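Handout, section B. The chain below has 383 residues.
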Amino acid sequence: MPIGSFKDGGLEAFNSNADAIERVLGELMGLELARDYADRDQTIGMVGSDVEWNVPSETNPFLIVVAVNDPSRSYEEAVSHVRGQFQTCWDNGRSWATGIADQVKRYGKLYGDVDVKALADIAESLESRVALQLSGALTGNWSYDENRGTDLETTLGNFSGQFAGKLSAFYSNVGDRANVWATFASSLAAGYAGTAVVIDRCRHDMTEWAIKTRRHCEAQLQNWADAGGFGILVMQRGGSVDGAETLLTLSKIVNFGASVASLFPPAAAVAGPTRTVSGVVTTILEHTGGDAERPVTLTAQESLEIWGWEDSGGGAQHELGHEIIDGCTQALDELRQGSADGGPTGTADVTAEVERRVSDGSWYAPRPQGMSDPDPSDLWYKY
């Protein structure tokens, strides 16, 4: 999937689907309440005068016809009474659903506003303009001057005085230090890239969830229309329409986070041979995680079954809030924490290693006497 954008219209389309889900769930609940009312009202049954009610659905308007036999009312009064009760049930259903769209949009905003394209661009720039420039830049006889036929090490042999030793130490160590810096820059780039792909995968799931949950609700509403409303159901007393079924294809987002973390370069870099840092970011940004998807089937007859109760372990609400959003948060935590068993390295490990090197002085190249190291509180990794 392309990094940096929701599919099918982005966050605006996600919010539009959230509005539709609230509307259709409210309409379904309204129909269910009207059906339950009709089932309890003994004046509505198999014999009597037909009463029509045009279901005021914004999604799929249709006509319901029930038979009413109410000796206590005239035909006109009976029609008015039944229609009024149906409308009250409809309005109550819409009221029940109020707030669902706002809840969905709050979930969407958690990761929907993140500019993952910018994160990916930062990762690529850090790798190409920092890590790769440092990695191997000062290896071998890096100071050799072809025009002069000599190198800095030879030239240093002619130096003496207060700073000769310091300069010689700097020359001896600066290549290894550059390799350390390159590895840390690569780790930082990997952190940006890993965050980008995890959030992008989460937003893919959010889009999948929004589109298919809306279609699932609309399919159930269509089932009501195809069943001829609830006139037949009332005759059967307590019947219900067939449940709709929809398949979601969501990511195994937590497993995906761990598989991304496994691609990170090690944080505990030591001076030594040049580490190849090229391609780490590209590998992460193109990572699919292998078996990274799982099918989820939404199937229900009632609006409460479709939406689900909070923490119920099922329903569309649970899939969005717990499986997708919480799963993304856990995956990002996995990127940060890494593994304690010597496996994937997290961004927290990178920070800890930088702090260790600052504390023992090994982060810096040797400095002339009298020149102090920077105040650690001003270092980039503190922010």
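Note. The two ends are 31 Å apart (CA to CA). Compare this with the example in section A.
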